[in-house]
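Action item from last week, closing it out:
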Amino acid sequence: MLAENVSIIGLGLIGGSLARGLKRAGLCNTVRGYGRREAALQQAVEDGVIDDYSLDLREAVAGADLVVLATPLSTTEALMREISDVLKPECIITDVGSAKGVVVAAARKALAGRLAYFVPAHPIAGTEKSGVEASFAELFENHIVIITPLTETDRGARDTVAALWRGVGATVVDLDVEHHDEVLAATSHLPHVLVYTLIDCLAQMQDRNEIFTYAAGGFADFTRVASSSPEMWRDICIANKASLLAVLDRFEKHLHGAREAIAAGDGGRLMDVFSRAKQARDAFARNTGR
C-alpha cells in the first residue's frame, strides 16, 4: 500500500479513472473525492469509484497522505492556496496537468513551504469523453506518465508518485518542465487547436449539414478530440501559450508551403510532403501499436 488515504480533487475522466485504478490495485486504503456536482459524487460512491466525498475542499484533504489535483489548470493556484495550511506535514501533492510550467509557477507561489512534497505529473492518456461516468480503471495501462520533479522535490515523494502510476499500469518517465511543455505543445496541444478550429470552420460554412453528412470514417477519427472538454483545452492553450505559439508558427509555414504547392500544381512537392508524413506515421504505428 502506497498511501493510507488519498484525496482526489476533481473527479472527472482522469481523476475518476485514477480512483478506480487505485482501488482495483489496492494501492491505498481509502479514496475521498471532491467536486462541484454532488449527484455525480454520490453516484461515484455507489459505483465504488471512491469511498466518500466532501463538497468542502479543506475537509476533503484533511488527513490525506496524498492529494491529486485533477481540475482545470486555471484553478490550480487557488486550490493550492486553500489547502496548503490544512495538509498533514508530509502529505504528498501531485497533479495531472497537461502544461507544467504554469503548475510549477503556481506551486512556488502557493506551496512555498511544501515544495519538497510537490510532485508535478502528467498522464498521457485520455478520451474525448469527460466526467466520472466516463472513467475506467484501465485508462492508464500501457500509457506514459511524465513526472517533472523540481530541484526541491523529495526523492521519496517522487518515487511514491511514480509507484502510484506504475501501479495503475502506466510507464513513468522524467522530463524537465520546459522540455515537457515544448513536446506536449507539438504532440497534443497543437493537434487539438487544429481540430477544434477545423470543426468550427466547417460548422460555419454554407450547407454544413451536407458536409457532415458525407464525412467519412477518417474524418470521424481525425476530429474525435473536438468532443473533449472545451474548458480544459482553453486552459491548456493559455497556460502553455509560449510553446504552443512557437509550434503554431512552424506549422503555419508548412501549411503555407502545401498551399503554394497546390496552387502551383506541384505534385512532386506534395508527394514529398505526403511521403515523409506517411513514413513518420507508419514508424509511429510500428513503435506504439497505435
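Closing note: The chain has a mean pLDDT of 94.
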